[in-house]
Design a protein that fits this description.
Belongs to the FMN-dependent alpha-hydroxy acid dehydrogenase family. InterPro entries: Aldolase_TIM, Alpha-hydoxy_acid_DH_FMN, FMN-dep_DH, FMN_HAD, MftD. This is Heme/flavin dehydrogenase (Mycofactocin system). Its cofactor is FMN. The chain is of the alpha/beta class and 388 residues long. The chain has one domain: Alpha-Beta Barrel (TIM Barrel). Strands 4-11-10-9-8-7-6-5 form an eight-stranded parallel sheet. The chain has a two-stranded antiparallel ribbon with strand order 1-12. Helix 1 runs antiparallel to helix 14.
């Protein structure tokens, strides 16, 4: 099989063929009935382009700047939890980001340490959630700063919605002998995936090293998740305090309402991401792209506005920029690439997105992604969510 693929959809198909069923379903996700995850992609399809046919630019630029970092295109790697789809996990993703000139986002719940990921070469944003004590949070920030993280991401939109109509996958707490025996039927049906771990001389790692202090035992993902779930949610004053502890760009992720966007500005955010957590939070939230115009209009140029949720092609990126985003973050798209072909698969996904961005910018008659505007789109009546 040719290792190169021409679409994110093909990357997903290959990931489905390569991954054990429980691992694939963990990536597929989507809370409750999965209506929000479906709307995230459907909404992009509702937006049409209004292209030109002559006088088009022969040379085009996809470059932009986000959170003080020069990007070759308006795409960032969104932080996602334990990436056990490939032995190198977040390190492979960071290497791909470095090779393609974009920024890496690393989750607190990642399976690789902030030190290892920064060493891979991409400018790295460290993501945290409001979990544990203030002292614990501060220790994590200090570690990230010492490692060389260039920005902080605070994820706010998570309400611990765990019921899924399609059936949640059986994800183990840790890989021990009884667990290996129980999962053997699913794993043995995917010999190439198993062989990749055998060659690496390790088992899938379900621990989260970024949540362990010096000399502390590294917690498992679900131990850390339990701590997060039992931590009282933050107030806006808590968020302002966290911002005061970080000397650098500060992104608040999970905004879908104009009033929350303005509160984030007041709390000191330098950037916000319009996001419904990829459809994994409260089901029946509107698609992120539907919330974007009202949020972007509310904050104006006070902060940089990003978007995540449903990005599967370069034209989706262009539509987000036309409606007010400076750039987008991708999650499942690069995970499909990682599962399909490791670092090269992530690079493949990024190349697919870059090609789609360039094609759309060409057709719309622009020479740069910075020139995109709502006038480039045909937006159906009632498409956007009203501001709050």
């Amino acid at each position: 099989m040719n290792p190169w693929f021409e679409s994110v959809a093909e990357a997903q198909r290959r990931a489905a063929r390569r991954l054990p069923d429980p691992v694939y379903k963990a990536l597929l996700a989507g809370s409750e009935r999965g209506l929000t995850i479906e709307d995230n992609q459907r909404a992009f399809a509702e937006l049409g382009f209004a292209p030109h046919v002559a006088g088009l630019a022969s040379v085009r630029s996809s470059e932009t700047t986000v959170m003080g970092q020069e990007l070759s295109m308006p795409v960032l790697i969104s932080p996602t939890g334990v990436q056990a789809v490939h032995p190198l996990g977040e390190v492979a993703v960071a290497r791909a980001a470095a090779s393609r000139g974009i920024v890496m986002g690393l989750s607190t719940f990642a399976s690789r340490s902030i030190e290892d990921v920064v060493a891979a070469g991409a400018p790295t944003l460290f993501q945290t959630s409001w979990t544990g004590s203030r002292a614990h949070l501060l220790a994590g920030l200090e570690r990230a700063a010492a490692a060389g993280a260039v920005g902080l991401v605070l994820t706010l939109n998570w309400s611990f919605s765990e019921g899924r109509d399609w059936g949640s996958p059986a994800i183990p707490t840790r890989i021990d002998l009884p667990t290996a025996v129980r999962l053997a039927p699913a794993v043995l049906r995917r010999p190439r995936w198993l062989a990749s771990w055998v060659r690496a001389g390790q088992l899938p790692d379900l621990t989260v090293p970024n949540l362990a202090g010096p000399g502390e035992r590294v917690p498992t993902f679900f131990e850390a998740y339990g701590t997060w779930k039992n931590t009282p949610p933050p107030t806006w004053d808590d968020i302002a305090w966290l911002r005061s502890q970080w000397d650098g760009p500060f992104l608040v992720k999970g905004i879908t309402r104009a009033d929350d966007a303005l509160r984030a500005v007041d709390a000191g955010a330098t950037a916000i991401s319009v996001s419904n957590h990829g459809g994994n939070n409260l089901d029946t939230e509107r698609a992120s792209i539907r919330s974007l115009p009202a949020v972007a209009a509310a904050v104006g140029d006070q902060v940089e506005v990003l978007l995540d949720g449903g990005i599967r092609r370069g034209s989706d990126v262009v539509k987000a920029l036309a409606l007010g985003a400076r750039a987008v973050l991708i999650g499942r798209a690069y995970l499909w690439g990682l599962a399909a072909n490791g670092q090269a698969g992530v690079e493949n996904v990024l190349d697919v997105l870059r090609g789609g961005i360039d094609s759309a910018v060409l057709g719309l008659g622009h020479s740069s992604v910075r020139d995109l505007s709502a006038g480039d789109l045909i937006v159906p009546k009632g498409f956007s969510s009203p501001g709050r």
